[in-house]
Structures are given as C-alpha cells and as structure tokens.
Amino acid sequence: MALTPFTNDPLFNSIIRLSHIPDEFSTLFDAPTSKFVRDSNAMASTAVDVKETPEAFKFIADLPGLKKDEVKVQIEDKNLLTISGERTREVKEETEKYHRVERSTGKFLRRFRLPDNVEVDKIAASSENGVLTVTVPKFKPPEPKKPAIVDIPIN
User: Which residue range(s) make up the domain with 82?
Assistant: First the structure.
C-alpha cells in the first residue's frame, strides 16, 4: 500500500506554484513602505515526510512556531491518521503597523491512510523545536514455524 501524499500530484504542484506568484510580484515593490501584505490561507499545504523503517512508519512535519496544544494528532476509523492545527496571527497593537507579512497563518489538515500491519493503539507523537514526529509501529511479523518432526518407530 502506498503512503504517497497527494502533494506529489503534478496538478497540485502547479496550483502551489501559482499561489507563489504574489511573492514574486511583491519583489517589485520591496520598499519598507510597500502596502503589499500576503495573507495566505495558510499552512494548508503543510509538508509531511513519511519514512518507513522495519519497525514503524514515521510521519515528520515542520510546524514552526506552533505549541503542542495547537496541534491535534488523531486516528479516525481505525486506519486514518489525521494531523491538524491552526496558527493564528498575533494581535496587533494599535501603534504597530506591518510593512510585510510573510509568515502563513490559518488551519491545516493532513490525512494518511494507514496499512493493515500497524499497531494503532501504540501510536506515539512528539514535538521538538517545531518538528512533529508521529511514530506508527508495525506488527511484528510472526516467527516462521518450524515443521513439526515426529519420529515414527519402525516395527
């Protein structure tokens, strides 16, 4: 079973590239007084690496600036791993004025269908330095059974 995220789709990648056109356009007006402010609809395309080891699958997501309580890791329907959260914009003081906003805000949601050979009740998640790691252990393969050998006495 493939664990390929849907972000590898060429059409999706084209859409992502189009969303960065405002970034390239804004370099024309890179003065500190530029009125261009990008309010991205966020971390909607939060990248997640999926790594497989002999013992587990690991899902690794960069979530800079998010606290543990701002991220949810859930299992839905016994085999759907969901990673979600929201980054909100800082409250602006009345005396403050942004000249440029590049850090994305908003909600994100990533889902991954898990294969049948994982131990859902032993999934663990940790967050360190803005990197979320979700470890999904695999079932240990059964030991190969040795054929039973029974000596038959000869009469």
Answer: 36-88+100-139
109-122 pLDDT, tens digit each: 999 999 999 999 99
DSSP secondary structure of the chain: -----GGG-HHHHHHHHHHTHHHHHHGGG-STT---------GGG--EEEEE-SSEEEEEEE-TT--GGGEEEEEETTTEEEEEEEEPPPPPPTT---S---S--EEEEEEEEPPTTB-GGG-EEEEETTEEEEEEEBPPPPPPPPPP-------
Give the CATH number, domain containing residue 135.
2.60.40.790
Q: For the chain, what is the domain count?
A: 1
State the pTM of this model.
Answer: 0.62
